[in-house]
Amino acid sequence: MIIAKTIAELQEAKKSLRQAQGTRGSIGFVPTMGALHQGHLSLLQQARKENAHLIVSIFVNPTQFLEGEDLDAYPRRDEADKKICERSGVDILFMPDIDSMYEKDELCIGAPALRGYVLEGEKRPGHFDGMLQVVMKLLNLSSASKAYFGKKDAQQLALVSQMVKNYFMDVEIIPCDIVRDENGLALSSRNVYLDAQQKQRALALSRSLKQATKMVMSGELNVETIKKEMRHVLDEVDEVEYVAIVDRAFNDLKEVEIGNSIILVAAWVGKPRLIDNLWI
Ligand code: PAF
User: What is the whole-number distance in angstroms between the Cα of residue 31 and the centre of ligand 1?
Assistant: First the structure.
């Protein structure tokens, strides 16, 4: 595995990879902010299987953190992450510093005015602008033909897919299923902040989604009725930020459209803000 810390090193590593393997086979790319867990691992495994080359980036992107969100407290585990990447058959691990990625007075792209400013975008205004800015850079740098994103960040996935479509970018965005622990908690780098009791209470998120599925399966499609019931189940969390049911393009729905809906929840449990969702 080659570790590239600068853009020049990344370009060099891509060149030598292609020369060594005597092929221009497809490049799979998994962008991450590190603190890799089982959820990331499943993205790495899928990308490894589907491509000749695998590039992973670890970059805690400052532009997607808002003022007051603690960028410095974001979990960093570089040494453990390197081992995980090595074991997962990553060819190039790209770990740039901030100065390699940004210059002053940058040209910026922004999230779309509607879809980018509801739910996560409403609670964290500007977050998606920063996320899209860095994902555009990383996709261009990786020269990937396929890039892998988890469905857990459903709105991120929708916006990245829209960016690729709107900017005619030559990369396929592959959505990957949410990975959960044995109790149903969706895996997240932020789960490290949960103590045992909070972990228990955090299960209310996945339970509320299960309850919603049960209702839909028994014929209840009314969005308001389902959301009301979900909020009851979410009693145990410290604060519910939102419960939403939207179509796959993040438009509001009055009735669940089976095969085209996402049920989402965001809530605070202790220190971290957790999100979860279910595609139905
Ligand atoms: O999902 C993430 O970890 C980040 O938003 C991403 C896609 C790596 C961009 O910084």
Answer: 6
Pocket of ligand 1 (CB under 6 A): 31-33, 61, 64, 131, 134-135, 153, 156
Indicate the residue type of 6.
T
Q: How far is the CA of 190 from the centre of ligand 1 (A)?
A: 13
Tell me: the pLDDT tens digits for 90-110?
999 999 999 999 999 999 999
197 in the same domain as 58: no
Residue 51 in any domain: the answer is yes
40 catalytic residue (yes or no)? yes
Ligand 1 centroid distance, CA of 153 (Å): 9
Candidates 40, 53, 127, 232; catalytic one: 40
Instruction: Determine the average pLDDT of the residues in 132-159.
Output: 97
Q: Residues 65, 146: one domain?
A: yes
- Count the domains in the chain: 2
Closest C-alpha residue for ligand 1 atom 1: 32
* Same domain, yes or no: 144 and 238: no
Question: What residue owns the CA closest to ligand 1's atom 2?
Answer: 32
The pLDDT, as a whole number, for residue 69 is 86
Residue 118 included in any domain:
yes
- One domain, residues 14 and 128: yes
Q: Let me know whether 98 and 8 are in one domain.
A: yes
The domain that holds 113 is classified in CATH as 3.40.50.620
Look up the domain containing 262 and give its range.
189-279
239-247/146-150 β-pairing = unpaired
pLDDT band at 78 (very low <50, low <70, confident <90, very high): very high
Query: Partners of 273 in the beta sheet?
Result: 268
Q: Is 27 exposed, middle or buried (0-12, 13-18, 19+ CB in 10 A)?
A: buried
